[in-house]
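Input.
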Amino acid sequence: MIDPPLSAIAARRLEFFPPFRELKIQVLELHEHWRSVRILLPLNEANRNPGGTMFGGCIASLADPIPALACHRNFPEYAVWTRELHVDFRRPGTSDLELRFELPLASIESIGRELDLRDRSTPMFEFGFYDREDRLVVWVKNRVAIRPQGFSK
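Output.
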């Protein structure tokens, strides 16, 4: 079962999160515990390159923190950050793009078990950006570090 949607206030808070404000994102779906996230990244004059397609840096800027934010929502007692980001541009972004991220309950449980055993986890998440025709435009692999607060090597 998918968690219920968060309030409109939580969605607006994410839209005005400083790294996202200039991207002019629109939260389409944001469920409690971030198990399902859909965000519209509009193609506009600010992020359109001279070739008429979306700048890859704008796509990467939105892709970067989403898994870390989802993990922090589920494991708030831990420090969470992006450890590795791989962005595979499969076709030009010639329209608005929709980020679709899923965090299955099985992944949350697996991460929880690893944290119980090792007090750290470094899970990999995969998700995509889709165009108006529902075609995959960008495939993202994002590894997140989940560590005890105050962790240092």
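The radius of gyration is 16 Å.
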